[in-house]
Design goal:
alpha/beta; 10 helices; 10 strands; ten-stranded mixed β-sheet; globular; TIM Barrel
Length: 288
């Protein structure tokens, strides 16, 4: 299937919506919204260089981030809840999205195009990448997602995305249901990561910057709720022992986290260190 055919299929899947595992089947082209809270066109909260990402994404010009409003996960501890849950931002066209990508490259000198929370916007994203590349976009495209992605949608994105950067949040279904309203997250997440790795392979770094591949993010939660060790075992045993992972220790209670006693505090520093050490022991590439 060529790029144009893939884009057409993604638009078809967007209304009635079947783009993500929730399968809301709402008519987004008629103004309906599903779990993500967004219609058929992107709502963007900000566009610009970001210097707080992993070092392999930043470089001298920063990571060229496009923050999409809305989300297909319902994380009670979301640190960006104004954007993801309250959908703060401005609606833009596919043409404006393509132009934003070119501006990040040509005006700001960014190292990549970093699409933040893109899952529910796969159709307009692909539709913007194609003309942007036709006008000279040559930066790696980063798919920076929550990891709750449909394999069918990911397959249609093959060739549009260079670097997949999904979260792996949980390995326990009960925790995933309570904290993100997605009981099937572990199963869906693992299948998605397998497909991402099939497409992009292990992370490739050239002159200090990532150019292609898979980079996992795992946020360590208090009380071992994320199932960190099982996630690392999955990566080492079923993906690749060369898998790149960022073990993130910056969790803090946000949004509705204080309503859930088990996540109402920060994780212990020695718990974070234990997860990172286990990843190293398993041979994974720990990225900061």
């Amino acid at each position: 299937m060529g790029f144009s055919e893939s884009i057409q299929r993604l638009w078809e899947m967007a209304s009635p919506c079947e783009l993500c595992p929730r399968q809301c089947r709402v008519e987004r082209s008629k103004g309906q919204v599903g779990f993500c809270g967004i219609g058929d066109m992107p709502v963007v909260s900000s566009v610009g260089p970001h210097f707080g990402e992993e070092s392999v994404l930043v470089g001298a010009g920063g990571s060229g981030t496009i923050f999409f409003a809305g989300c297909n996960l319902g994380c009670v501890f979301c640190q960006n809840f104004d954007i993801s849950h309250h959908c703060r931002g401005s609606k833009i066209t596919v043409e404006r999205l393509a132009l934003s990508m070119l501006e990040l490259q040509n005006y700001y000198g960014c190292s990549n195009i970093n699409l933040v929370t893109p899952t529910h916007m796969a159709a307009p994203i692909a539709a913007a990448i194609e003309p942007a590349r036709g006008k000279g976009l040559n930066l790696p495209v980063v798919y920076n997602c929550g990891g709750y992605d449909s394999v069918e949608t990911l397959k249609l994105l093959e060739g549009f995305v260079d670097i997949y950067m999904p979260d792996m949040k949980y390995s326990d279904t009960k925790v995933a249901k309570e904290l993100s309203a997605a009981a099937d997250y572990p199963e869906i997440n693992q299948a998605a990561v397998k497909e991402m790795h099939r497409q992009a392979g292990d992370l490739q770094i050239k002159d200090g910057l990532a150019v292609r591949g898979l980079l996992i993010r795992h946020l360590v939660l208090p009380n071992r709720l994320g199932g960190s060790f099982r996630i690392i075992d999955f990566l080492a045993n079923e993906i690749s022992r060369a898998t790149a992972i960022n073990v993130m220790g910056q969790y803090r209670p946000c949004f509705k986290a204080y309503s859930h006693p088990q996540i109402s505090r920060r994780p212990a520093p020695d718990g974070i260190e234990a997860v990172e050490n286990y990843a190293i022991e398993k041979g994974l590439r720990v990225i900061k």
